[in-house]
Request: fold
Amino acid sequence: MTLAVIFAYLGLVLLVGGLSHRLFRGTGEDYFVASRTIGPFLLLMSLFGTNMTAFAILGASGEAYHEGIGVFGMMASSSALIIPTVFFFVGMKVWALGKQHGILTQVQYFRQRWNSDGLGLVLFIVLIVLLIPYLLIGVMGGGLTLNLITKGDVPRWAGSLLVCVVVMTYVCYGGLRGTAWVNTFQTLVFMILGGVAFIVILRELGGLSGAMAALAEKQPDLLIRGDHIKPLKLLTYTCIPLSVGMFPHMFMHWLTAKGARTFRVPLMVYPLCIAAVWIPSVTLGVVGHLSFPGLKGPAANSILVRLIDLHAPEVLAGLLAAGVFAAVMSSLDSQVLSIGTMFTQDIVRHYGWGGGEQMSERRQVLYGRLFVTAILILTFALAQVVDRSIFKLAIWSFTGFAALFPIVVAALFWKRSTKYGALASIASVAVLWIYFFSKGWQTPGYTVGGTGIMPVAVILAASAVAMVVGSLLTRPPEPAVVRRFFPSHDPGGR
Reply:
């Protein structure tokens, strides 16, 4: 019965994606950016859905299982403030420039801003590499959920494959409009069912007060910060939400907005949405010790699904598992579509493949679909050999994108910034990210020199310095380029 409920839900997802195709106009712009028609509610749901992923549902509960209640403070509290701020100062300006210059992708913006083909190509490669760990958490989360909820009858690889096939189907069929519709549906599903899961599981554990009292007796250190999360670690985690400014799928959603007013609803409501997901996830991760003590390492990724399976009736367990699938797919779809869009526009068309700028709309859509399929196949293959904490995989992805934040700030607000400064910034991020990434796997919970400082703070600082120094040591950008992106600029200094 549980499996039947999950398959019924996946059928509904495909139906929503199919219905959205009725509005498809057959153009590349419609497929990749929905003809810039995404309104406030769809934007909020899509943005929220693409962020509240397996990372927030499975990863946060798994990390809270190990680290305690302070996990909420590490990510959710700072995200609730920083992400809306980035929406306002970066997202709205990106939308305005995208509409003004007909920009479809993140890479296209930076290439035009600094008039550099080389910069665009380097950035495309770096963005793909940084996004792979984040794609992995979605595919891994789907496989893990289906495996546990069926008590091992469905192997992890089959669950991962199912997620990839469903996402590939509605993304390839419906493009961004289909993705936005499905994300809205799935976001509502996992918010509602997440609330149900929270209530049902806590009731079985004696209510919130009863569960907390029992946990305080057995492992009180999980309910206070204590030695689990060092102050410097907590502080430097606040850099992580800056990643929203450079995530390809976030950029894509900004470019799709109807107008400036579309951003008002996300700005006001987003903090509440974060709290609605993170508080239950972290709480259930902590109280999971009462039912499943002694889980080690990546095994804690499954704590939420284990609790659902143990404490929820069969049909309800299927519905709650469907909610986890919703969280997984609502992010995976936007991510693969965003890089499919970049591949088509910034590689195929830009470099003259398949007709270049004269490429037909139909062929543009075809290339986008082919790249989406290829990325999902690659991610599925990697998911079969990677066995890491979902939370930490996501943090490493966030670290790279957060460290690139100085690039978008310089591009939008600093006229003197140059392509060489941007290239120096990207190079510093790539080198340091690879270094810390390799060290991080060797030492669980790795921080810089054992100080508690997260690598993101160091890489972000190095990236900012490289951007500034590289720009000041090189020739200023051409006045024509500056005038294009800063119309009020007077090259004569008047």
